[in-house]
Amino acid sequence: MSTAIQIDDLSFAHTGADVPALERVSLNIPTGESVALLGPSGAGKTTLLALLDGRLFGWCGQISILGAPLDPDHPPMCARRPDTGFVFQEFALVERSAVLRNVLNGRLGRMSPLRALMGSPTKHDLEIARTALADCGIADLANRRVDSLSGGQRQRVAIARCLAQEPRLVLADEPVSNLDPARAGEILALLTGAAQARGATALFASHQPDLARRFAQRIIGIRCGRIAFDVPTSELNEDATAELYREVEPIPGIGLRAVS
Ligand SMILES: Nc1ncnc2c1ncn2[C@@H]1O[C@H](COP(=O)(O)OP(=O)(O)OP(=O)(O)O)[C@@H](O)[C@H]1O
């Protein structure tokens, strides 16, 4: 089976940070797998996803996405961009634009440069965007401006935009944090189901172990920038989860230390 994400000995510190956000992380995620990243606030989940998306630089180690190595100092080539879809924790939508326009933005990397520049989608692009809206249960919101939507509705728009991109790898940073439990389950089912139906790989960060169990085949626990466990979902036990979320306290000049 081919590999979607290969990470070897990855370390990274944010500019000005005293301690690294990630330290000596190695993992391999085969194509088609749905994987959840669990970990307490500040563990390094967002940092890891942003690195995999080619948005942070100056890291050490090796990262390979869909068979192509990332450059630690430069963004990925434009041609590779559409293959990775990202659902942001803060949505990253164009607030004053209509929902449909936002979802069509997911198609930009699939359009010819001229069409993308003119903002002129083909019939096919429109069809895909409307299907993504319908799949996310928000077809009726197509013409509403994003700044008139609730947090949960925005989250659906962000997911629809990602699906419209037709990515081979879906990275999602707490993609359902603004939804009630029933809707959260529905949307994660949609996101992971859509990825699986297309043979795509999904890696999503979550604070909700129960949702991770339901929608991931494998669960990776991150704590203080290091991998605490990496197990098939069926093997995740309560003790490992409790240990992952055990309180940490900052030690001046040293970083984070687990409270015993
Ligand atoms: N832009 C930044 N500059 C400096 N330090 C940062 C920056 N972004 C994150 N960090 C630090 O990097 C570490 C990892 O943060 P990260 O946001 O990746 O954690 P997380 O697991 O995604 O947390 P959460 O669940 O709260 O989103 C934390 O110590 C955080 O304070």
TrEMBL record:
InterPro entries: AAA+_ATPase, ABC_transporter-like_ATP-bd, ABC_transporter-like_CS, MetN_ABC_transporter-like, P-loop_NTPase. The keyword Isomerase does not apply. It holds the Pfam family ABC_tran. The keyword Membrane applies. GO terms for molecular function: ATP binding; ATP hydrolysis activity. SUPFAM superfamilies: P-loop containing nucleoside triphosphate hydrolases. Keywords: ATP-binding, Cell membrane, Membrane, Nucleotide-binding, Translocase, Transport. Residues 5-249 form the ABC transporter domain. This is Phosphate ABC transporter ATPase. It comes from Roseovarius atlanticus.
